[in-house]
Amino acid sequence: MNLPSTAALSRVHDACTAALALAIVPEPFGRRRRAMGFDDYVHHQQRADAVMRRLAPALSVAAMATGAAAAVARVRPDPAGAAWRAGSVAAVAGAIVLTVRVHVPINERLRTWRPGQEAPGWREARARWERAHVLRRGLVVVAAAAVARSR
């Protein structure tokens, strides 16, 4: 059985982390989303959730798995690079925990909301989702920076 080289694992981890960062970090609608009324907010978030609940878990798991494999493979030849890879994995793991504990429950509730039928507490849920999203974005930026530093 041929195992992938350290360089190949690192390249795949780089690509997975970059894809995760591109999916999570840019905020083209962030300011607008925070100012939307209920109907627009529900419509926007339900569309985004339909994509991200499929895309983000796959990218996150791929980034963690390849990062862990690359870190282990680099321990002997490059301990500092391995530590940066491990740091990247830890940041992605933190983003996953935050997503599961805050975003997933809010998104599950949001899927039951219907435009035209304003849900009680939706502004508070939006504010909590947004605060957690800022932290998640920060963790993904840290992961990407750790990958860049590991080179």
What attributes characterize this protein structure?
elongated
Describe this protein's structure.
Helix content is 81%, strand content 0%. Helix 1 packs antiparallel against helix 3 and helix 1 runs antiparallel to helix 5. The longest helix is centred in the middle third of the chain and has 37 residues, at 38-74. The protein is an all-alpha fold.
In short:
Helices cover 81% and strands 0% of the residues.
What layout of secondary structure does this protein have?
Elements: H1 6-24, H2 30-35, H3 38-74, H4 79-110, H5 122-150
Helix pairs in contact: 1-3, 1-5, 3-4, 4-5
H/E topology pattern: HHHHH
Shape: elongated
Low-confidence stretches: none
Counting DSSP H or I runs of 4 or more residues, the number of helices is 5
Largest sheet: none
- The mean pLDDT is 93
**Helix share of residues?**
over 70%
Q: Which structural class should the secondary elements be placed in?
A: mainly alpha
Strand content: under 5%
Instruction: Evaluate the radius of gyration.
Output: 18 Å
N-to-C terminal Cα separation, in Å? 27 Å
> How many β-strands, per DSSP?
0
